[in-house]
Amino acid sequence: MKSRFGAAIVAAFGLGAGAAAAQTADPAAAASLTQTCRVCHGLDGVGTNPMIPNIGGQSAEYLSKQLQDFRAGRREDPQMSIIASDLTDEEIKALADWYASITATYQLPE
């Protein structure tokens, strides 16, 4: 059975949520910011290996908080801490809005 999740995050299970229509002022600029992210998270936000989280469809608020925490050192990861350290507030918002605008779908086990 296929199911689409709304804007809420089911964090206890680590499931991404389909975001409500989050939009940035300049989607082309946001897409260009994803160049670095794509290496691990793909353009669609799906991790390129099992150790990389799927971020497509997560809420913009959640994604912004994680990037801000990496940037501030409240959360640490060898790659993400370095990448986030150079992001401005506007770039964080644009990236969060971009990945939140992706509709994630999941298939429940039968």
TrEMBL record:
<feature type="signal peptide">
    <location>
        <begin position="1"/>
        <end position="22"/>
    </location>
</feature>
<feature type="domain" description="Cytochrome c">
    <location>
        <begin position="25"/>
        <end position="103"/>
    </location>
</feature>
<keyword id="KW-0732">Signal</keyword>
<protein>
    <submittedName>
        <fullName>Cytochrome c</fullName>
    </submittedName>
</protein>
<keyword id="KW-0408">Iron</keyword>
<keyword id="KW-0813">Transport</keyword>
<dbReference type="Pfam" id="PF00034">
    <property type="entry name" value="Cytochrom_C"/>
</dbReference>
<dbReference type="InterPro" id="IPR009056">
    <property type="entry name" value="Cyt_c-like_dom"/>
</dbReference>
<keyword id="KW-0349">Heme</keyword>
<keyword id="KW-0249">Electron transport</keyword>
<keyword id="KW-0479">Metal-binding</keyword>
<dbReference type="InterPro" id="IPR050597">
    <property type="entry name" value="Cytochrome_c_Oxidase_Subunit"/>
</dbReference>
<dbReference type="InterPro" id="IPR036909">
    <property type="entry name" value="Cyt_c-like_dom_sf"/>
</dbReference>
